[in-house]
Amino acid sequence: MSHVIGYLKPFRAKIFLAVLLVAGQSACDLLLPSFMSSIVNNGIAQNNIGYIFATGFIMLLITLAGCACTVGAGYLAARIAAGYSKSLRSAVFSKVENYSLTEFDTFGASSLITRTTNDTQQMQTFIVMGIRVVVSAPITFIGGVFMTLYTDIELAYILLAAVPVLIGILLFIVLKASPRFNVMQKKIDRINQIMREKLTGVRVIRAFNTTEHERERFAGANEDLMKTARSVHRLMASMVPSLTLVLNFVTIGVVWFGATRVDQGFLQAGNLMAVVQYVVQIMLSLVMVGMIFVFLPRVSVSAKRIEEVLTAEATIVDPAQSQPPADHKRGYLTFENVSFRYGNSEDLAIENISFEARPGQTTAIIGSTGSGKSTIVNLIPRFYDPTSGRILLNGLDIKDITQHDLRERIGFVPQRAVLFSGTIRENICFGKKDATDEQVHHAAEIAQALDFIQAKPEGFDSYISQGGTNVSGGQKQRLSIARAIVKNPEIYVFDDSFSALDFKTDATLRAALKKETKDATVIIVAQRISSIMDADTILVLDNGRVVGKGTHKELLASCQVYREIASSQLSKEEMDA
C-alpha cells in the first residue's frame, strides 16, 4: 500500500503538528487524576483550603490547555484528511484516464466508481480518526498503566492480568472481520453495477416491461449486501461490550482490593480515586483502539483496492522516443496482417487483416454482426493494440507515435453516439476547444444538424442533458459527426454512425461529407449497403476474416457474402444497375 500511503507525504508537517497536539491532550488527561489525588490527600484530608484552590487553578489551566490541543488536533486532522482524499481521488482519476479499454474491461466501470468515491471516503474517515486515536490511545494506555504502577503496584497487577485478555479479544475480532469486509466491498460494486445499468438502460427496461425483474434483481443484491454487512457489524458490535465487560471487572477488582488496602492503611483514598480514573482512561483508550480496529479491516480492503488501480500498468503506453508522422504524407493508413483477441479469449476477433486506406478515398467495412468491424476501427486510435501484425500511419507504426499525436489526427465517431452535459456548442467543440463560430456552424451544416439546432430557442447554446437524453438518436449521431468534422482530421472513422438517420438525411449528409473530406482518409463501418455503394474500397468481413475486397460492382460479381447482404437490402433492379 506504499502508493496509497505516499500521498500523505505533502502533509507531513501538519501531521507532525497534529501528533504533538494529540500528545499534549493525552498528557493533560493523564495529569488531572494525579492532581485530583493530591487535592484529596493533601487538601481535603488536611482541610487546607489554600492548597485546594491553588491545585484546582492548575487543573483548570491544564484543562484549558487540553481543550486547545483537542480543537487544534481536530482542525488539523480534518484538513489533512480532506486534502489527502482530494489528492487520492485526483490520482485515481488521472490513472484511470490513462487506462486502455483493456483495463476498463478488467476493473469494470462500477468498480472504478466505487474505488474513487466510497473507498476513498473510507480512507478519509480513517485518517481523521487515526491521527487522533492512533496517537492518543497508546499514550493514554501506556501512561495509564505507568501511573497505576507508580501509584500502587499491587492494584496494577489486576490491570496487567487483564491486558492479554483484552488484546486477544481485539485480535480475534479483527481476524474474523477482515475477509468479510473484502466481500462486502465487492457486493457494493455489484449494487453500483445494477444501479448503473438501471439508470442507463431505463428506456429498454420500461419498453420490455422488465421493471419488476430489475427491482427483484436489485432487491436480491441489496439483501445479499445487507446480510454480509449485518454479520460484519454484529461481529464488530460485540467488541466494545466485550472490552467494557472485562474492564468493568477490572474496576470492581481495583475498588474491592483498593478499599481493603485503604482500610489497612497501605493506600490513601485519593490514590485509590486516581487509580480508578486511570483504569477508566485505559478502558477508553482500548475502546478507541477498538474503534480503529472496526475501521481497519474495511480501510485495509479499500486501500488495497485503490492500490490496485494506482499500480495497474496500462497495456497501451507511449513510446520512450516518439516519432511524429511526416506532415508531407498525411492520412495514409495501413494494416499489415493484423490479428486481435479480447482479453484471455481463445478465439481471435479478427485474423490477418491487411488493407491500405489513402487520402481522398473512402474505405468501407461491412459484414454480419460479430464479424469484427468495430474491432478494426477500435485498433486505429489504439484503444487496443493488435495481438499480432502492425498498423502504420503515414509509414510509421502507430506504437511509435504518442497517443496524443495519433488521436489528434483522427476524427472518431463511435457506434454509440455519446454526448456530454453542456451546450450544443461545447459538444461540437469537444475535440477542438478553439473552434470559431464559423467552423462550428459549418460542421453542423455538413452534419445536417443545423436545422434542428436553429429550431431550438437558444440555438447552439441549447443545453444537452447528461448522455444526450433530451435529443433523439439521429440528432445525437449528427452532433457526433459534427464534432469530428470541426476537428478537420487526417482520418475520419465512422463506426456505423449513420444507422439512426433516415435515407434522405443519410444521402444528403454523405454527399456533403464527400466534398468536406476530399483530402482526408475516410473509413466507414456500415450495415446498410446504400451507405457504402460509392466507396472506393469495400472490405467484406466474415468471422473476423476479409472474404472480399473491391468496389460495389466487383464484390457483387466475386463475393458470395457481399452478394447475400446486398440481396437482403437491395431490389433486383438495384442489384443489376
What features would you describe in this structure?
There is one protein chain. This protein has 20 helices and 12 strands. The longest helix is centred in the first third of the chain and has 49 residues, at 49-97. Helix 9 (239-264) packs antiparallel against helix 10 (269-311). Helix content is 64%, strand content 10%. It is of the alpha/beta class and 577 residues long. The mean pLDDT is 83. The protein has helices spanning 2-6, 12-44, 49-97, 101-107, 109-151, 153-200, 202-207, 211-237, 239-264, 269-311, 373-379, 403-408, 424-428, 437-446, 450-454, 473-485, 503-516, 552-558, 560-569, 572-576; strands at residues 333-340, 350-357, 362-367, 388-393, 396-397, 410-413, 422-423, 463-464, 491-495, 521-525, 537-542, 545-550.
Keywords:
single chain, 577 residues, alpha/beta, four-stranded antiparallel beta sheet, 20 helices, elongated
Summarize the structure.
The chain is built from 20 helices and twelve strands. The chain has helices at 2-6, 12-44, 49-97, 101-107, 109-151, 153-200, 202-207, 211-237, 239-264, 269-311, 373-379, 403-408, 424-428, 437-446, 450-454, 473-485, 503-516, 552-558, 560-569, 572-576; strands at residues 333-340, 350-357, 362-367, 388-393, 396-397, 410-413, 422-423, 463-464, 491-495, 521-525, 537-542, 545-550.
